[in-house]
Amino acid sequence: MYDIQTGLSSKVICNTFPAFMLSGQYLQFVDAFKYLGHIVNHDSTDDNDIKREVRNLYSRINILNRRFSRCSIDVKLMLFKSYCMCLYDAALWTKFNSGTIEKLRACYNKCIKIFFGYPRIHSVTAMLSDLGLPSFSSLLGKCQLAFQEQWQCSGNKVVKHFVNLFGYSV
User: Fold this and answer.
1) Spatial separation of the C-alpha atoms in residues 127 and 119, rounded to whole Å
2) What is the pLDDT of residues 124-136, one digit of tens each?
3) Contact (CB, 8 A) for 115 and 62
4) What is the rounded CA–CA span in Å between residue 8 and residue 71?
5) Cβ distance 84 to 61 under 8 Å?
């Protein structure tokens, strides 16, 4: 349809989807759902999944702190590396607000301070250096690199097709 006053043409597109039916039941549209532990949003953003990771990290560190607060630094380091540095789906995060990822960074640093007993105002750089832990940026980069390496080494023909199609390189 052409509008004479504005000189713009527009197409009328339906704003709603038709109802889908499966086995006599109407399927419901949702804004987000969880698939293999990853939250998938209707707008393809990863903010909800990052927020889920923040909640999980605080939960894990509270449990570890409650049960293992009196352990040695070596034991705490092993526990922290095993339970708090596993960001399995971080490599899938591509579209998010910078504030959301900053909340996860702050959560990571705060959890280290809580678990290892550092004061709140202690330098993050000094703390990470003392403990030999990676910074949040290094951890995130390592996750993304490992994901790319797994894509490239896959024997799956479909995965190999996407590697060749999009040119993923390490």
Assistant:
1) 10
2) 999 999 999 999 9
3) no
4) 70
5) yes
Query: 151 falls in which pLDDT band (50, 70, 90)?
Result: confident
* Three-class SS state of 125: helix
pLDDT band at residue 170 under the 50/70/90 scheme: very low
121: which 2 tokens? 């105002």
> In Å, what is the CA distance from 94 to each residue of 11, 97, 113, 141, 161?
31, 10, 28, 13, 21
Q: Give this prediction's pTM.
A: 0.78
Overall average pLDDT of the 59-64 stretch: 97
Residues in the chain: 170
Strands 21-22 and 25-26: antiparallel
- Give the C-alpha separation, 98 to 39, whole Å: 18
| Rg value, the chain, Cα | 23
Tokens 């959560």 sit on residue:
107
What are the sequence ranges of the domains in the chain?
45-156
Instruction: Return d(Cα 120, Cα 156) in angstroms, integer.
Output: 47
In the chain, DSSP finds a helix count (H) and a strand count (E) of 6, 4
Beta-bridge partner residues of 15:
none
What pLDDT digit, counting tens, does each position of 100-111 carry?
999 999 999 999
